[in-house]
Task: inverse folding
């Protein structure tokens, strides 16, 4: 629940930070941090225009899309706090829940009968299909390394694996950032700022949405970013004080008192939340920077790029096999 | 008493042929209900008390008595079979209505008669252990389904497909006969009872794979699947639903039954099954995506799902070989659960596709589109089935796939690198199959039902009668029940696997029930979210201004329906990636330079099944060879006497040389 609530809070400023960083990188001042949510608020109260081609699928799509994202967020743990909805293999439900949202989202786009939206839907289906294996191999790797299959246990024991976890963690965080970019249709797979329908993926799929429905779509996107940020934070936010002490510089950890004693239970949570928000801000800024300084790939090159992620995940898996001495002995 | 119980349905079934055509359907329904009642009650009893001794029916006959054995495995399959046969029959009445004008009542009589006999033969296959009786039942099943496919026999392609089906089924039958004979020559018993004796004294792998090949032709594992994508579309839709939903599962039943007798080399067998199954799954879904015939698309997706079921069974066998009960239970449990689920959503999809065919008289997705406006209920049910088959929560497909995933993730923690890697590769394949299924079914649903009609096709109003909707709603209700309360189905399944494979499922039941209850909780939360947001949306949109207009056309307002994405273009970027597996054929002739005013041209792109082309090549060559041999047939009596003389001469020489 804690993770869910924190992610909801994060979603409030996440798109704003991306926008601000992008503006600053292009030499402008940029809008306020909350501007995207002000836009959403306006949209929520606006009327709608529906295409006469559309059916109930089109009207249901944004609602189901947003609901699946909320459900997926509920599944995510927060370091050190027992998760309410976690169970063995909850990451499978997480992945399939998001897949359900995408499925409905794609159908919503096809419902308009527009050739542009058909194109976007088709690309979205292809990219998410290609990105799925990377996520599964990544969790296979983590399951092998830690011996657990629920996200809560994976992340908790992951930090106790030892120094080896650094390199796996690095790869995992890298992969998750890339997957987040693909799933949200951002650079380098898709450019949200493009103005040509032929080159859009996500934007072209919501061309016919308006008012309340469009607002739900935007909320979904913001939440999705915060959700991936939370997932990444699970790797990096210290689970307990012991872990924190081990990786803290000497001057911070008083030899006689000890950090754990100084902080106490409440203090630990404060530190965790601070670290969490720091990570989310860095993540958002990183996306802004990536979008400012990176070019979008050619559409035809995208599949190659996405499949590469699976290969990187496989490398991580083999690395774990080496670490656990299965391959050598 | 038992004699009467067994013979009654057989005798009753013959009256279908002579009864007045007005009450024929009702009578068939009654006979089927009687058979279902007769078998379901003991089957349910056996399934819920799997440790009790198998129920026996003895029926005396002229050739000695036949023993019907009902153990928990048969009981599970009987229940699955009965349900789909019932929904198929309920659906058939409305579906066949439009044929009543131009088909004779005799054709209908034969059709319903074959339908009942398909049902009886499947039940016999499930309960007979003695070799001859089993093989006769197996053969009856093939013949009955052959008759059912032939309903539209006046179409040449249907006739060809049906004969092709019959021939392939007989190749399978021959393989099974050989396998049973091999076991008999070593043990003196003909039938499944010979197998435990044979397997304890002989190498297990060869005989098992002989059985596997025989059963795999029915089940549709590659490379034995080529009849399946042809036969399913050719059959009437309720028959496709029953064939895909339960009849091909008889092949799976055979494989699992033989597996219960295998004594050694289970690890090797398991790995091999898993490899075949993974490739079956991938190939099936890849081929499914590029199809433009709606029922052919579903048929290939059947192959994919057989692959998923096979993955579970292979995993179970690996668990037996390694003596890891967790893998056995999760593998077989997931596989058989998926079998149940597949029989539900695939029959639902086939029935819905049948309704589309009935209303539009075409199965070509390229000329469909926009059906959601004219047949919204069929569209909703097809969507429901699509979500289930893509293994998306909160429906049933997800439950069985997650069990298989559990097994695979449990198998990751192995001591050997080989096992760990093969588990990871299977996880990878399953994840890919999941993504591809989503791609395929977004195409199947999106292009058939959404957008606008691509070809100005006339859609018959009221083609779908309430009688056709009822069985589909029934299936949908069961799908939702399994999706939201999977715990109910877990304990009989676990009990059955425990008894069949001599493992103790108890330690796993607790964690599984916990996980499944969390999954169903998330499903309910999802539904609550959706309902909540829909309510909110209604409240917000009520006072707001809502306008209607054309779809955004990028400033171009004269767009036509033909500019929409088509089934081929939707699959194009994927087809490019998967080209090596697809073997797509293009029929197009380039415009030569001297042709100043290009004439009308056509372009066609069709995917071909590699395995089909391999088989075609083999038959082509053998036809060529046989034609050469046919030169011997001169029609000249002197030549034939000469042949007889040469034959005797050869025999004489061989005898003289002591060769024979």
Result:
């Amino acid at each position: 629940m804690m993770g869910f609530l924190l992610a909801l809070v994060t979603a409030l400023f996440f798109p704003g930070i991306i926008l601000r960083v992008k503006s600053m990188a292009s030499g402008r001042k940029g809008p306020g941090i909350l501007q995207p949510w002000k836009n959403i608020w306006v949209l929520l109260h606006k009327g709608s225009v529906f295409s006469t081609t559309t059916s109930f699928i089109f009207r249901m799509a944004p609602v189901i899309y947003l609901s699946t994202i909320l459900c997926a967020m509920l599944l995510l743990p927060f370091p050190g706090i027992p998760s309410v909805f976690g169970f063995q293999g909850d990451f499978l439900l997480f992945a399939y829940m998001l897949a359900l949202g995408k499925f409905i989202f794609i159908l919503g786009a096809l419902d308009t009968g527009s050739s542009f939206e058909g194109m976007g839907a088709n690309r979205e289906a292809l990219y998410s299909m290609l990105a799925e294996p990377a996520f599964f191999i990544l969790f296979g790797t983590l399951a092998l390394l830690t011996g657990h299959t629920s996200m809560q246990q994976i992340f908790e024991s992951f930090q106790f694996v030892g120094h080896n976890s650094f390199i796996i963690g690095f790869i995992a965080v890298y992969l998750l950032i890339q997957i987040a970019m693909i799933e949200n249709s951002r650079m380098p797979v898709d450019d949200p700022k493009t103005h040509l329908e032929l080159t859009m993926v996500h934007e072209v799929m919501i061309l016919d949405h308006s008012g309340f429905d469009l607002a739900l779509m935007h909320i979904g996107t913001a939440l999705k970013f915060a959700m991936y940020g939370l997932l990444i934070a699970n790797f990096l936010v210290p689970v307990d004080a012991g872990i924190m002490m081990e990786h803290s510089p000497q001057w911070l950890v008083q030899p006689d008192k000890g950090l754990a004693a100084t902080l106490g239970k409440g203090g630990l949570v404060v530190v965790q939340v601070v670290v969490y928000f720091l990570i989310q801000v860095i993540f958002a800024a990183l996306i802004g920077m990536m979008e400012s300084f990176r070019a979008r790939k050619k559409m035809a090159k995208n599949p190659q790029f996405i499949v590469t992620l699976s290969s990187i995940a496989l490398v991580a898996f083999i690395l774990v096999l080496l670490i656990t001495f299965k391959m050598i002995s | 008493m038992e004699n009467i119980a067994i013979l009654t349905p057989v005798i009753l079934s013959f009256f279908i042929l002579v009864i007045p055509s007005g009450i024929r359907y009702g009578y068939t329904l009654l006979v089927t209900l009687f058979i279902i009642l007769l078998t379901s009650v003991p089957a349910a009893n056996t399934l819920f008390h799997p440790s009790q001794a198998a129920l026996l029916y003895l029926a005396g006959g002229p050739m000695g008595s036949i023993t019907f054995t009902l153990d928990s495995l048969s009981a599970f399959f009987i229940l699955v079979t009965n349900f789909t046969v019932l929904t198929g029959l309920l659906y058939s009445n409305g579906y066949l209505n439009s044929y009543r004008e131009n088909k004779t009542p005799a054709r209908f009589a034969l059709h319903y008669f074959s339908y009942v006999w398909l049902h009886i033969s499947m039940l016999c296959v499930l309960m007979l252990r003695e070799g001859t009786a089993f093989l006769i039942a197996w053969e009856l099943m093939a013949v009955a389904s052959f008759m059912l496919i032939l309903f539209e026999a006046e179409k040449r392609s249907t006739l060809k497909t049906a004969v092709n089906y019959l021939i392939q089924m007989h190749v399978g039958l021959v393989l099974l006969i050989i396998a049973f004979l091999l076991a008999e020559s070593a043990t003196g018993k003909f039938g499944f009872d010979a197998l435990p004796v044979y397997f304890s004294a002989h190498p297990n792998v060869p005989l098992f794979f002989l059985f596997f090949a025989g059963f795999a032709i029915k089940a549709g594992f590659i490379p034995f699947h080529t009849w399946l994508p042809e036969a399913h579309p050719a059959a009437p839709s309720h028959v496709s639903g029953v064939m895909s939903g339960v009849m091909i599962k008889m092949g799976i039943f055979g494989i699992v039954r033989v597996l219960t007798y295998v004594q050694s080399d289970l690890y090797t067998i398991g790995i091999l099954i898993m490899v075949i199954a993974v490739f079956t799954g991938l190939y099936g879904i890849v081929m499914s995506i590029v199809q433009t015939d709606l029922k052919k698309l579903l048929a290939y997706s059947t192959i994919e799902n057989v692959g998923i079921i096979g993955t579970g069974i292979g995993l179970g066998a690996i668990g037996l070989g390694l003596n890891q009960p967790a893998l056995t239970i999760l593998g077989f449990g997931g596989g058989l659960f998926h079998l149940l689920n597949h029989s539900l959503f695939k029959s639902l999809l086939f029935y819905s596709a049948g309704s589309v065919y009935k209303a539009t008289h075409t199965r070509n997705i390229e000329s469909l589109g926009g059906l959601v406006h004219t047949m919204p209920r069929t569209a909703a049910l097809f969507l429901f089935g699509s979500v289930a088959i893509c293994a998306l929560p909160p429906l049933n497909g997800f439950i069985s796939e997650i069990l298989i995933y559990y097994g695979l993730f449990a198998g990751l923690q192995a001591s050997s690198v080989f096992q760990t890697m093969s588990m990871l590769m299977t996880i990878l394949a399953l994840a890919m199959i999941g993504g591809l299924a989503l791609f395929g079914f977004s195409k199947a649903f999106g292009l058939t039902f959404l957008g606008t009609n691509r070809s100005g096709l006339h859609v018959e109003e009221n083609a779908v009668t309430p009688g056709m909707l009822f069985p589909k709603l029934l299936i949908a209700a069961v799908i939702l029940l399994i999706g939201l309360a999977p715990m109910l189905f877990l304990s009989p399944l676990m009990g059955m696997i425990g008894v069949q494979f001599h493992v103790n499922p108890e330690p796993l039941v607790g964690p599984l029930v916990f996980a499944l209850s969390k999954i169903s909780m998330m499903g309910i939360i999802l539904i609550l979210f959706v309902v909540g947001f829909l309510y909110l949306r209604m409240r917000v949109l009520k006072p707001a201004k809502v306008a209607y207009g054309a779809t955004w056309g990028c400033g171009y307002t004269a767009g036509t329906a033909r500019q929409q994405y088509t089934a081929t273009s939707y699959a194009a970027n994927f087809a490019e990636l998967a080209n090596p597996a697809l073997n797509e054929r293009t029929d197009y002739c380039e415009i030569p330079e001297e042709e100043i005013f290009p004439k009308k041209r056509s372009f066609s792109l069709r995917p071909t099944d590699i395995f089909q082309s391999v088989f075609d090549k083999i038959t082509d060559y053998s036809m060529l060879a046989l034609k050469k041999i046919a030169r011997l047939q001169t029609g000249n009596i002197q030549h034939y006497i000469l042949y007889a003389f040469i034959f005797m001469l050869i025999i004489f020489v061989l005898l003289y040389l002591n060769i024979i």
Observations:
- Residues 611-660 of chain B form one domain.
- Chain B has a mean pLDDT of 88.
